Task: structure prediction
Amino acid sequence: MQMPSRRSLLQHSYVVLLVLGIIAVAIIPVGIMTFVAEQRAQAREYDALVLYARRGLSRVEMVYTNARDALEQMKRIDADTCGDEYLQDMRRVALMHRYVQNIVTLRDGQYVMCGAMLGRLQPQARLKQPSWQGPRYRVWLNAYDIEDTGNPMLMIADERNAVLIDPDSLVDVVVEDPSLSLSLVGTATNEVVASWHNVKPEYALMGYKDPGSRQADGNYYVMVKSTQYPFAVVAGEPTGNLMRHWYASLRIWLPLGILLGLAAAAAMLMFIRSRGSMVGQLRDAIRRKRLVMHYQPIVDLASRRCIGAEALVRWPQQHGTMIRPDVFVPLAEDNGLIQPMTDLVLELICADMATLLQLRSDLYVSINLAAIDLSTDRFIQVLAHKLPQAGIESARLAIEATERGFMDVNSAQEVIGKLRAAGHKVLIDDFGTGYSGLSYLQTFQVDVLKIDKSFIDTVGTEAATASVAPHIVEIGHALKLKIIAEGVESEDQAQWLQAHGVQSGQGWLFGKPMPAAAFLAFLAQDRQKALS
Result:
């Protein structure tokens, strides 16, 4: 049985990854919108529950204020303490205050002498220690021993009188949803004073200690503290309510997520198809030799005579535009087309420039090589075959390589040595933009440095990189290398470079990249200037 080739396995893996990528792009917006729906539903329920807790707190503060008013009115009674008239006034004050269940008068602040509903007491009961004591009032959260009913009461006292309140009245808040619960917690003692709608005190206390959380009873709790009194209100609701609102929110956000996911998947698919179709078009353009060459002059800075040109590949389109090399060259490198494209570039140069290079021994054309062509002898063999056929000497074709193209240093060093041995000059292009320019010069034997345009742009300015070009020039001189400055656009730059010993320049000041016919016309004008 024939085993699948490595290439077919890679293609299959690529298709699988592509499909998974499209699925992921489609699913991610759905997941995001689902998360957004959950967060919005949770925020909505949290806000509603906090509002409910604040209503409960308002109720607590209202009852507490009512009790304090009763204590203030008790101070204004002038009758004999615990006498008949006093007891009658005491009952009147209790009846006038809606939430007060009973009022008692204290001796020495701790013994109950008489009460509105109890009359005079013999013996006088002694109060326990209060749950909380402030500058004016004391609070008992569970005062069982006053009326001896066994039902806990909330008691608020000053030095002379105390009022008793049914704790349930503190959390008796009307709400449309009976599943909501409300609990009152004493912050001084961390104990539940009252609960509404059958909430278990131990879970309400957990909600008080860890607000904004779901407890084991299946309820979600929030907590609001009073800024005036030692109380906090804990409101709870079943998490089923949250899920119900999440589903409602999801009906809005999920379709949006699906639409965004489909749009993102469609956009990615279109991009992949367009990129794939561009690869196919580039492959067809190389096969049908539809690429063209432009040539940018390289001039001697001292004489301003043209001494050569850099060959730059272009991909023309049917509507007259050109696809930029920074678009299709990486595409060729990523899809195994860079070597056939380099071979075509050499063929086009031979067709364009063979006669010129035969007649003008003072001119050369440079060709850019990709990293893969510096890793093997393949292109050396292509040169050895093509150039003699075209009648072009090796010295007339220079090789340009970038620092970033030296993938395998040892192989590149060997290939560069063989190219120079065959008579080709080797230029390091874009010097200074790689990772270890000086170390490359110490490793490789080359002929020319080309200073990148980004450094030429800062010559004579205050930019941080303004010192790089002079430094590169010094390196070139120290290593006895010729130097070409790329991107020369002004006469000031040209004069600065010439003054600093740079031999050659390339840029729009001297000429833009141009088709072969225009370059030949440029050379003709250049010769006429030299003769005039």
